[in-house]
Amino acid sequence: MTEFLLSRFVKGYPEVNDPQVRARCGNLAGLVGICCNLLLSAGKFLAGLLTGSVAISADAVNNLSDASSSIITLLGFRLAARPADDEHPYGHGRTEYLSGLAVSVMILLIGAELAKTSIQKILSPEPITTGMVSILILAASILVKFWMAAFNRHVGRLIRSATLEATAADSRNDVISTGAVLIATLLQMQFGWNLDGYMGLAVAAFILWSGWGLVKDSIAPLLGQTPDPELVRHIADVTLSYPGVLGIHDMIVHDYGPGRQFASLHAEMAAGADVLESHDTIDRIEKYFLEQEGLHVVIHYDPIVTDDSETGEAREFFAAEAKKLDPRLSIHDLRMVPGTTHTNVIFDLVLPRELDSRTSELKHALQEAAQRKNPLWLCVITAENSFTGTFASEKAKEAETSASEQ
User: Fold this and answer.
1) What's the pLDDT score for residue 130?
2) Which residues form a coiled coil (predicted)?
């Protein structure tokens, strides 16, 4: 059914990397959500009126809020698809995150109101009537919501939309909450137990829990969360696959909305290689990412000495010593400046933020290791945090091994 809807109503599908096709997929998901949730809400309101059940009515309000959420999602996709302009040179993609935040806040408000109503129902219970009509409506709702969860999850992963994946999670939670209401209705029919208020409170709790999770998911990209490890690894793998690139570091990924990522990194290349050839390689990498993946990548050329055995030996030594101190440590940009009384060994030490308090200790430990290795080595270390990580290719090791053998 999902593939049928996408192929039938999304022009240009399956080219989801096209921003316009991606927006159409999001619009379709929003429209499907609006239609399904309005139908479910109307059916549950009817069942709630016939039975007097606050739990069913609460579930109906939940579906109505979901319909409103789908409207905001639809609006968010439309606004996010607007092209860049002079005031917003990076586009309007973050509007999608803002729409997700608005939906999350709405869910929290509705959940709080339903919790209040359910508590009143627990303190002052009222008799309710049950029947097959309400049971059939609830059972149908569970089936529809189960399909909607699968639909939104599929489309969300297809177009890499955190908003739709959050909507899928919300639909999954609705399956659980509606199932709880159905159980309460069946218990009422079978044993006469009036658990209406308690189940209504349980539904409200699920709504609040889901809303809070969505708030966190919506705020994270707006604040600047850690980039997707798969994207980081992919950028590294592609860059390192080009001849002449020996390693990369200082990668930063900026997120201006789904499908609107910008990245910068330093590419290590042999200092002895032809500069124009190295520059051409960097240009080809940047061009590939932009044309094939729509990713803006800016690469800084970082020359490293590969034909000096002492420098290669020092690089391997300090990299190994750093790993001994903590497996998360790495080094880059090592160079050696010989003098009359000592040799400055200059490099950057990359460490996670949780080790910032140990910076002086780690520098001292590396200096002591240097003195044991060579009393003339004096370390000049710059400590820095990594946004992603440092990646080295086998080509760098091969180049240094070749220099050591000469």
Assistant:
1) 61
2) none
Instruction: Please state, as a whole number, how many other Cβ atoms lie within 10 Å of the Cβ of residue 37.
Output: 25
- CB-hemisphere CA count at 13 Å for 379? 25
Residue 132 structural domain: 2-223
Pairing of strands 391-392, 377-385: unpaired
Q: Give the pLDDT score at 55.
A: 63
Q: What's the full length of the chain, in residues?
A: 406
Left, alpha or beta for 166 (phi > 0: left; psi -120 to 50: alpha)?
alpha
Distance CA 151, CA 146 (A): 9
Residue 195 shares a structural domain with residue 243: no
Indicate if 89 and 108 belong to the same structural domain: yes
From residue 317, give the alpha-carbon distance in Å to each of 124, 249, 369, 380: 75, 19, 9, 15
28/124 same-domain check: yes
* Structural domains of the chain, count: 2
Q: How far apart are CA 207 and CA 173, in angstroms?
A: 8
Determine the 3-state secondary structure of 191 from DSSP. Answer: helix
Q: Which pLDDT tens digit goes with each residue over 64-79?
A: 777 877 787 777 777 7
What is the strand order of the sheet 391-392 is part of?
Answer: 296-304, 261-270, 245-255, 391-392
- Do 236 and 391 touch, CB atoms closer than 8 A? yes
- Is the pLDDT at 365 greater than 70, yes or no? yes
SS3 of residue 388 by DSSP: coil
Query: Which residue, 223, 253, 275, sits at the end of a domain?
Result: 223
Q: Using the 8-state DSSP alphabet, how is residue 52 labeled?
A: T
Q: 56, 140 in Cβ contact below 8 A? A: no
Do 18 and 33 lie in a common domain?
Answer: yes
Taking the model in full, what pTM does it have?
Answer: 0.62
**The CATH number of the domain where 243 resides is what?**
3.30.70.1350
User: Among candidates 66, 33, 76, 34, which has minimal Cα distance to 222?
Assistant: 76
